[in-house]
Specification:
Length: 119
């Protein structure tokens, strides 16, 4: 699902995309300046190898995600540290945002239930 950023207004624009076992559902809403707010919930599961025993296990996900998308290069003039993703072509692909969230989750530290419980 491709979204043209300048078409995002104050009225929330709902989206829902899926990737394998994961549903990414939320909305985009114009914030201010070049910024568009993204609020979403990421729910489902993925297979990952445990960081302790290296066994594959199913990681259950239910995370609320919030960040801003900047239509163009973002300059933090007011020094408010926002979580901003820049778009340089005036659009975003929701599936790409989902994929980068999944990558972030994969790169986090996770251990399987057995390792968790043996601590
Ligand atoms: Zn383990």
């Amino acid at each position: 699902m491709k979204v043209i950023l300048r078409r995002v207004k104050k009225t929330p624009l709902d989206f829902e995309v899926k990737s394998d076992e994961i549903t990414f559902k939320g909305y985009l809403q114009y914030h201010s300046g070049k910024l568009i707010l993204l609020q979403a919930n990421l729910k489902g599961s993925l297979f990952k190898s445990c960081d302790i025993c290296a066994e594959e296990f199913k990681l259950l996900l239910d995370e609320d995600i919030e960040f801003y998308i900047s239509d163009g290069v973002y300059e933090d003039e007011n020094n408010i540290e926002l979580d901003v993703v820049e778009s340089l072509d005036g659009s975003v692909e929701i599936e790409e945002l989902l994929n980068s969230e999944i990558e972030l989750i994969r790169s986090d530290y996770h251990s399987c239930d057995e390792c968790k419980h043996s601590n």
